[in-house]
Design a protein that fits this description.
Distance between the termini of chain A: 38 Å
Structural class of chain A: mainly alpha
Number of strands of chain A: 2
Largest sheet of chain A: 2 strands, antiparallel
Largest sheet of chain B: 2 strands, antiparallel
Order of helices and strands of chain A: HHEEHHHHHHHHHHHHHHHHHHHHHH
Oligomer: heterodimer
Helix content of chain A: over 70%
Radius of gyration of chain A: 21 Å
Radius of gyration of chain B: 31 Å
Distance between the termini of chain B: 97 Å
Number of helices of chain A: 24
Number of helices of chain B: 27
Shape of chain B: globular
Strand content of chain A: under 5%
Chain lengths: 494, 681
C-alpha cells in the first residue's frame, strides 16, 4: 500500500491545475492554457495508475484510505477510500479528462482557459464523489460537480443551451434535495455520524428504509438517468459541446449508478429487495422503450443520448438482480459505456466540426471522403450494438446471462436490445456513412487528422482490450462485490 | 505441446494476414495484400491437414488458451476442442477459403477496394475457425457474431449501392433476431449447468433431461421441459445463421456482395455454422424429441419452399442462392432426424459443389462483363469450356447424380428421414423427396439457359432493357455493375486464377462422397463426438443396417425414387427450356397467382417491412412524440414549471406593495395566533 495520499492527489491535482489554467485567463495565451491543461490532465491520470496496479484484489474493503477531521462539531470527516467498485471509475475519469482536453484542442477557440479549467475542476470533483466515505463530503462533491457542467453547457453550448442547462440543473437539484434530507435522517439515526461505512451497519426499520430508498432512488435515478426522469439528458447532450457530452456520458452518468451501490444497496438492503421489482421494471422500460425512441431520432447526438439511457438500463438491471454476474456485468457495462459513448460523441463531434450539423439527413456517403474515420466509427457503432470482442458486449452478455437465472422474461426483455440496439446503431451508420456522397458539405469533408486519429485510436484500443480480455477489469471487483452481496443478504430489520 | 502451438497457428495465420492487408490497405501494393492473406490461409490449411492426421491417429484435445472472464462461480474461457468434427470443419473452411482467395485475385482485379476485400475474407476465415474450434458456448457466440460482422461488411462491400447497404443491414438485423434466441439458450445452459464448457455441459445434461421450467409462475400449462426450451432457443440462433424459414430473408439479398464471398460465406461456410452448432450440441438435442420435431419441420419447409423460388429466378446468383437455402433445409432435416453425421457430411459435400457453382457463376459473370441475367446468356459452353464443364459437374453433384458427392449425402438424408419416426418426419420425407425434383429442375434450367441453346448475348436490345422485370431489386442493384456485352462482343474464358479454383473444387465435388460415406456416416469417425439416443431415435441405426458400401449404394439407387425424380427434373427442364420455351411462358400465364406468390417470395419481405420495420418505427415515434415529448416533458416537466409559475403569479397577488394591506394581514395574523394560544391554555 502506498504511503502517498494518492486519492487526495487524484482529487486536488486536477482542481489545482484547473485553477492555474483559469488564472491564465485571456485567449491571447490560449496555446499555453491548452498545454498546461494537458499536462495537468496527464499528471492526474498518472497519479491514478498506482491505484490499479497497487490494488489488492483479495481485499474487499476500502483501500488507500485517508481520514482526517473536517468539521469536528458535526463529526464530519475528510474520509477517502476506494474499493473494487469505485477504483476503476477514478482511473476512467482521469483517462477521459485527457481525451476531453485533447478533443477541444482546435475546436474551442473562445474562453479556452475557462473551458479547460471547467473540465479539470469537474474531473477532480468527480474523483471526490467516487472516493468520499463521508456523507457530507460526498454531498459537497456531488453538488459542486453540477456547477462546472452547468457552465460548460450554458457557456459553450448550442443555440438552445440556456433551456438545456436549466433543465439539467433543476432536474438534478430536485433529486439531490431529497438526497440531502435522507443524509440528515441517517445522521440523526446513527447518533451523529456521517460515515457511510457506519451507515452500512446501521439497523433501520423497513418503513424508514422504504422512504429512504425512494429518496435515494429519485436522486440517483435522475443522474443515471432512468426512465421516466431521463428527458434532461438528450437536451443536455444536444446543446453541450463535444467535450461536455463526452464527460456527461462517460463519467457523469456513472455517478447515479455508483450511488445505488454505495448507498441504496448496503444501507437499505431490505428496501432494496422489497423494491427491486420497481427498479427492474424501470430498467427494462429504459432498455426497450428508449431503444425504440432512439430508433427514430433524427439528430445523431440525441440518438446516442437515448442509446446511453438504454445502456444504463442494463446497469440498474444488473444491480438489482443481486448476483455477482449482475453487479459485475453492470460495472463492466459502466466502464465500457465510458469508452464507447465517449467515442461515439467524439465521432459525432468530428463530423459536426466540419459540417456544423448533427442531423442524420444532412449526411450520406461520408465513407467516400473519410475512410479512416468511417472504419473507426464502425468499430464504435458495433461496440454500441454490443458486438463480441468489443467492450460493449461484455457487460450486456453478463447481465443477460445473469438475468436468465433471475427470471427468464426479464432476460427476454433485456436481450431484445440485441436487435433494437443493432437496429438504431446500424441504421444511423448506414444513413450517415454509406451511400453516395449526399451533398456538397460531404463532398468537402477531409479525413481525420493526427489528433483525432490519436483520440479515436486510443479509445479503440481500450474498447477492444476490454472486449478481448476483460479479466483485469473484473478481477478487481470480485472481493468487493462479494462483500457487498453478503452484506445485502443480511436483513437490517430488528 | 507442439500440437497446441499448431492449433493456435490455424486461426492466427489468417488473422495476421487480415491485419496486414487491412491496417495498411492504403499504403501496401496489391500483391502484398493478396500474398500475405493467401499465405496466411495456406498455412492454416496445411496446419489443418497435419492436425487432421493427428486426430485420426487418436489425439484429440480439449483445453484452455486463456481465461476471458471470471464472475461469481462462473468461468468463461477461450479454448480449443479438437476432434473429428472440428477438423472436418477446419479442412472445409480453410480449403474453400484458400480457393476463394486465389479466385479473388481474378475476380476483384479491377476493384479499387482490392486490399480491403482480402483483409475481410481473411478476417472471416479467422472468425469462422474460432467458431468451429471453440470448446465452449461463449467463444462459439464470439465467432458466431464475428462471422456475422464480416458478412455485414462484405455484403455492403460496394457501399455506394443502395441495395447493398440495405441488404447488409437487413442481414445483420435478421441474424441478430436469431442471436437473440441463441443468447437466451446460452443463458439457460449457464443457469442450469453452471458452465459454458461443452464437456461439462454435455456431462450434466442427461441429469437435467426431466427438469422442467415454468414460464409463468404457477401456471400448469406454461411448464415446459428445460431441454426443449434450451434447444429451441439455441436452434433459433441456427435459424438466423443458417437461413431457415422465417429467418431466411437475408440470404437472397446477401447476393449484393461480390461473388467470391457468396461462395465462401453464403454457401460453403458461414451459413452452415448453424448446422455445425446443432451437430455439436447433439447431446442436448437428443434429450428433446419436441425440439427435434421443430427442427425437422422448419428444415423441411425451407428445403421445399425455398426450392420453388429457385425456379423463377433470372439472376444467376439468386438461383444458386435459393438452391443454397433449400440445401440448408436438407441439412436441417437431417439434424431433426438425428442423422447428425449425415448433416455434417452433406455440409461438407455441399461446401465443395456449392462453392464450385458460385465461383462458376462468378466466372460466367466475368465472361459476360457483369451481366447476371441468365436470359441474356445461352450457348456459353463454346466460349467458356472450363467454366462449362466444372459447372456441369457442380450441377450434377447438387442434384444427386449417383456416385457423385451430393448423391451420397442427399440420399442418406432422404433415407434417414424415411426411417425416422418423430412427429413431422412424414411431412419432411415428402418435402425432401419433392425437393429432389425441384432441385434438378431449377439447376438444369439454369444450366441449359446459360451454357446451351441460342446465344442471346450481345444483342442490340441487351441487358439494360428487358421487357420483363424478373426482380425489381435486381434491376436497381445492377445499375452500376451491369455492363453486359456490347453488340457483337463475345464472352471469354476467365484467367487461370479463376479457373484453377474451379477445377480444384470440381475434384472433391466428384469423389468426396464416394470416399467419405463409409467412414463418416456409417463408420466410427464421429464416435464420441456426436451422440445419438438410439432408443428414442433409431433412424441412424436402421440406416446403417441397410448400408453395404458406396458402390452398392450407388448401384441400388439407379432404380430408386429419388433418382427417378432427379432424372425427370432434368428431362422436364430440358424439354421446357430447350425444346418448347413456350410452355413455361404459358404456365406462367395460366397460373399467374402462383407466379406472383413466388415472384414476391411468399411476401415475407413485404410483411417484415410493413409489420416489423414499419411497426418499430411507428412505435418509436409514438413513444418519443407521445411519451417523452408530450407526457413527460410537456405535461410533467414543463407542466410543473408552469405550475410553479402559476403559484407564483397567484401568490404575487398578495404582494401588492400597499402598506395597509400588509398591516391588515398582520393584524389578522396576530388575532388568529392569539386565539389559538388562549384556547390552548
Amino acid at each position: 500500500m502506498s504511503t502517498y495520499p494518492l486519492l487526495s492527489l487524484a482529487i486536488w491535482i486536477p482542481i489545482f491545475a484547473g485553477l492555474v489554467v483559469l488564472s491564465i485567463g485571456s485567449d491571447r495565451n490560449a496555446p499555453l492554457a491548452r498545454m498546461l491543461s494537458l499536462v495537468g490532465a496527464v499528471a492526474a491520470f498518472l497519479i491514478t495508475i498506482p491505484l490499479w496496479t497497487g490494488f489488492d484484489v483479495a481485499n474487499g474493503g476500502m483501500q488507500f484510505v485517508e481520514l482526517g477531521s473536517w468539521i469536528p462539531r458535526f463529526n464530519i470527516n475528510y474520509h477517502l477510500g476506494v474499493d473494487g467498485i469505485s477504483m476503476l471509475f477514478v482511473v476512467l475519469n482521469a483517462f477521459v479528462t485527457i481525451i476531453v482536453v485533447a478533443a477541444g484542442w482546435e475546436v474551442i477557440q473562445t474562453k479556452v482557459a475557462q473551458y479547460n479549467a471547467a473540465f479539470l475542476i469537474m474531473s477532480g470533483l468527480m474523483n471526490g464523489i467516487f472516493t468520499s466515505l463521508d456523507g457530507v463530503l460526498f454531498y459537497v462533491f456531488f453538488e459542486a460537480s453540477l456547477i462546472p457542467m452547468y457552465l460548460i453547457i450554458g457557456v459553450w453550448g448550442g443555440p438552445n443551451r440556456v433551456y438545456a442547462a436549466f433543465k439539467f440543473f433543476l432536474y438534478t437539484l430536485f433529486g439531490s434535495l431529497l438526497f440531502l434530507i435522507a443524509l440528515m435522517y441517517l445522521f440523526i439515526q446513527s447518533g451523529g455520524s456521517f460515515s457511510i461505512l457506519e451507515w452500512h451497519k446501521l439497523p433501520i426499520g423497513l418503513g424508514a428504509q422504504v422512504w429512504l430508498f425512494l429518496a435515494f432512488l429519485v436522486a440517483f435515478a435522475v443522474k443515471v438517468p432512468m426512465w421516466p426522469v431521463h428527458t434532461w439528458l438528450p437536451d443536455a447532450h444536444v446543446e453541450a459541446p463535444t467535450g461536455g457530452s463526452i464527460v456527461l456520458a462517460a463519467i457523469a452518468l456513472k455517478l447515479g449508478a455508483y450511488g445505488f451501490l454505495r448507498f441504496s444497496l448496503p444501507i437499505l438492503p431490505d428496501a432494496s429487495h422489497e423494491l427491486s421489482g420497481l427498479v427492474v421494471a424501470l430498467s427494462l422500460i429504459a432498455v426497450v422503450y428508449i431503444g425504440f425512441v432512439a430508433l427514430v431520432q433524427e439528430d445523431m447526438k440525441k440518438l446516442v443520448a437515448y442509446s446511453s439511457i438504454a445502456h444504463m438500463g442494463f446497469v440498474t438491471l444488473g444491480f438489482f438482480m443481486f448476483s455477482p454476474m449482475g453487479i459485475e456485468g453492470a460495472l463492466v457495462q459502466m466502464v465500457s459505456h465510458g469508452f464507447v459513448s465517449g467515442a461515439m460523441f467524439f465521432c459525432i463531434g468530428v463530423m459536426y466540426d466540419r459540417v456544423h450539423s448533427r442531423q442524420i439527413a444532412d449526411y450520406g456517403g461520408v465513407v467516400n471522403k473519410m475512410p479512416k474515420f468511417a472504419a473507426l466509427f464502425m468499430l464504435f457503432t458495433m461496440a454500441n450494438a454490443g458486438l463480441p470482442a468489443t467492450s460493449g458486449f461484455v457487460g450486456e452478455f453478463m447481465v443477460i446471462l445473469g438475468a436468465v437465472k433471475f427470471n427468464f422474461w426479464v432476460a427476454f426483455a433485456a436481450a431484445s436490445s440485441m436487435v433494437i440496439g443493432a437496429a438504431y446503431s446500424l441504421w444511423m451508420y448506414k444513413r450517415v456513412i454509406f451511400g453516395d456522397v449526399a451533398n456538397h458539405h460531404v463532398e468537402e469533408l477531409s479525413d481525420i487528422n493526427m489528433r483525432e486519429f490519436a483520440i479515436l485510436g486510443t479509445l479503440a484500443i481500450a474498447t477492444l482490450w476490454m472486449g478481448l480480455y476483460p479479466q483485469p477489469f473484473t478481477e478487481v471487483m470480485h472481493a468487493s462485490v462479494n462483500d457487498l452481496l453478503r452484506h445485502v443478504a443480511i436483513s437490517k430489520i430488528q | 505441446m507442439e500440437m497446441q502451438k499448431l492449433y493456435l497457428l490455424v486461426p492466427m495465420a489468417p488473422l495476421l494476414g487480415a491485419m496486414i492487408a487491412g491496417l495498411f490497405c492504403r499504403v501496401i501494393p496489391r500483391w502484398v495484400a493478396h500474398t500475405a492473406t493467401i499465405a496466411g490461409v495456406a498455412i492454416a490449411f496445411i496446419a489443418s491437414i497435419i492436425i487432421f492426421k493427428d486426430v485420426l491417429a487418436g489425439n484429440t484435445y480439449n483445453g484452455t488458451v486463456y481465461t476471458w472472464l471470471t464472475s461469481g462461480d462462473y468461468r468463461f474461457e477461450v479454448g480449443f476442442l479438437i476432434d473429428t468434427l472440428t477438423t472436418t470443419m477446419m479442412l472445409v473452411v480453410t480449403f474453400v477459403s484458400l480457393m476463394v482467395h486465389i479466385y479473388t485475385i481474378g475476380y476483384m482485379q479491377e476493384d479499387p477496394g482490392y486490399n480491403r476485400f482480402f483483409s475481410y475474407i481473411s478476417l472471416f476465415t479467422f472468425s469462422m475457425l474460432m467458431l468451429v474450434m471453440s470448446n465452449n458456448f461463449m467463444q462459439l457466440f464470439f465467432g458466431w457474431e464475428a462471422v456475422g460482422l464480416v458478412s455485414y461488411l462484405l455484403i455492403g462491400f460496394w457501399y455506394t449501392r443502395p441495395t447493398a447497404i440495405f441488404a447488409n443491414m437487413k442481414a445483420f438485423l435478421v441474424n441478430r433476431v436469431g442471436d437473440f434466441g441463441f443468447i437466451l439458450g446460452i443463458g439457460l445452459v449457464l443457469a442450469y449447468t453452471g458452465s459454458l464448457d461443452y464437456a461439462t455441459v454435455f456431462e450434466k445434461a442427461p441429469g437435467l433431461a426431466d427438469t422442467t421450467i415454468n414460464l409463468f409462475a404457477g401456471r400448469e400449462w406454461a411448464t415446459v421441459s428445460l431441454m426443449t426450451a434450451t434447444c429451441i432457443c439455441l436452434f433459433i440462433g441456427a435459424m438466423g445463421k443458417s437461413a431457415q424459414v422465417p429467418l431466411h430473408v437475408w440470404l437472397p439479398d446477401s447476393m449484393e456482395g461480390p461473388t467470391p464471398i457468396s461462395a465462401l460465406i453464403h454457401a460453403a461456410t458461414m451459413v452452415t455454422a448453424g448446422i455445425f452448432m446443432v451437430a455439436r450440441m447433439s447431446p442436448l438435442f437428443e434429450l428433446s424429441t419436441t425440439a427435434l420435431s421443430f427442427v425437422i419441420v422448419i428444415g423441411a419447409i425451407t428445403a421445399l419452399f425455398m426450392g420453388f423460388l429457385g425456379i423463377i429466378q433470372n439472376d444467376i446468383k439468386r438461383v444458386v442462392a435459393y438452391s443454397t437455402l433449400s440445401q440448408l433445409g436438407y441439412m436441417t432435416v437431417a439434424l431433426g432426424a438425428s442423422a447428425y453425421s449425415v448433416a455434417i457430411f452433406h455440409l461438407m459435400t455441399h461446401a465443395f459443389f456449392k462453392a464450385l457453382l458460385f465461383l462458376g457463376a462468378g466466372s460466367v459473370i466475368i465472361g459476360m462483363h457483369h451481366d447476371q441475367d441468365i436470359r441474356n446468356m445461352g450457348g456459353l459452353r463454346k466460349y467458356m469450356p472450363i467454366t462449362w464443364i466444372t459447372s456441369l459437374i457442380g450441377s450434377l453433384a447438387l442434384i444427386g447424380t449417383p456416385f457423385m458427392s451430393g448423391f451420397y449425402s442427399k440420399d442418406s438424408i432422404i433415407e434417414a428421414v424415411a426411417l425416422s419416426h418423430i412427429p413431422g418426419a412424414g411431412f419432411a420425407y415428402f418435402a425432401v423427396l419433392a425437393g429432389v425434383f425441384v432441385t434438378a429442375f431449377y439447376s438444369f434450367r439454369m444450366y441449359f439457359l446459360v451454357f446451351h441453346g441460342e446465344e442471346r448475348f450481345g444483342k442490340a436490345d441487351d441487358a439494360h432493357h428487358h421487357e420483363h422485370h424478373g426482380d425489381h431489386d435486381d434491376e436497381e442493384s445492377s445499375h452500376d455493375h451491369h455492363h453486359g456485352l456490347a453488340p457483337g462482343q463475345k464472352p471469354h474464358e476467365t484467367p487461370w486464377v479463376v479457373t484453377l479454383p474451379l477445377v480444384l473444387l470440381a475434384i472433391p465435388s466428384v469423389v468426396i462422397g464416394f470416399v467419405g460415406i463409409g467412414p463418416m456416416v456409417f463408420g466410427d469417425y464421429f464416435k464420441g463426438v456426436i451422440f445419438i439416443d438410439h432408443h428414442a431415435h433409431p433412424a441412424m441405426e436402421h440406416l446403417s443396417e441397410h448400408f453395404h458400401g458406396a458402390v452398392a449404394m450407388g448401384v441400388h439407387s439407379l432404380t430408386s425414387l429419388p433418382f427417378i425424380l432427379a432424372l425427370s427434373g432434368v428431362v422436364v427442364s430440358w424439354f421446357f427450356y430447350m425444346k418448347r420455351p413456350d410452355i413455361p411462358a404459358a404456365i406462367q400465364r395460366r397460373f399467374s397467382a402462383v407466379h406472383a406468390l413466388l415472384e414476391n417470395k411468399y411476401y415475407f419481405d413485404k410483411f417484415n417491412e410493413v409489420v416489423f420495420a414499419g411497426g418499430a418505427r411507428l412505435l418509436g415515434k409514438v413513444l418519443w412524440r407521445g411519451g417523452d415529448v408530450a407526457i413527460i416533458d410537456g405535461l410533467i416537466v414543463n407542466g410543473s414549471a408552469k405550475l410553479v409559475g402559476w403559484i407564483a403569479s397567484v401568490t404575487r397577488l398578495f404582494q401588492t406593495g400597499y402598506v395597509y394591506h400588509y398591516a391588515f394581514t398582520m393584524i389578522i395574523g396576530v388575532f388568529v395566533l392569539m386565539t389559538l394560544w388562549i384556547n390552548r391554555a
